[in-house]
From TrEMBL:
Gene3D superfamilies: Metal-sensitive repressor, helix protomer. Pfam families: Trns_repr_metal. Belongs to the FrmR/RcnR family. It comes from Rhizobium subbaraonis. It comes from the Bacteria. GO terms for molecular function: DNA binding; metal ion binding. InterPro entries: Metal_Tscrpt_repr (IPR003735), Metal_Tscrpt_repr_sf (IPR038390). The lineage of its organism: Bacteria, Pseudomonadati, Pseudomonadota, Alphaproteobacteria, Hyphomicrobiales. This is DNA-binding FrmR family transcriptional regulator. GO terms for biological process: negative regulation of DNA-templated transcription.
Length: 93
């Protein structure tokens, strides 16, 4: 597959989320440089971390839902169950 075929519907939302996290991270740097309280900095870092983790989770789920389906193609019910279970357990990553 070429790179263009890897664009999925969720990618624009992922980019938007990451840009927001980038802005928050820059704000955290400014907070540290300004000597803001550690609790405030830690709370903002936690928010950045969660935003990035959610972007990663969305990207992985999107990949499993689309790219994996293209690779495996049509499957018997038993084999389909294995793929579905894999996709379900991957949500806990």
């Amino acid at each position: 597959m070429d790179q263009l075929s890897h664009l999925h519907q969720t990618h624009s939302a992922i980019v938007k989320r990451l840009k927001r996290a980038d802005g928050h991270l820059r704000g955290v740097i400014e907070m540290i440089e300004a000597g803001r309280p550690c609790l405030d900095v830690a709370q903002q870092l936690h928010a950045v971390e969660k935003a990035i983790a959610q972007a990663k989770k969305t990207l992985i789920q999107d990949h499993l839902d689309h790219c994996l389906e293209e690779v495996v193609g049509p499957l018997t019910r038993d084999r389909r169950r294995s793929i579905d279970e894999f996709k379900e357990i991957a949500k806990y990553l």
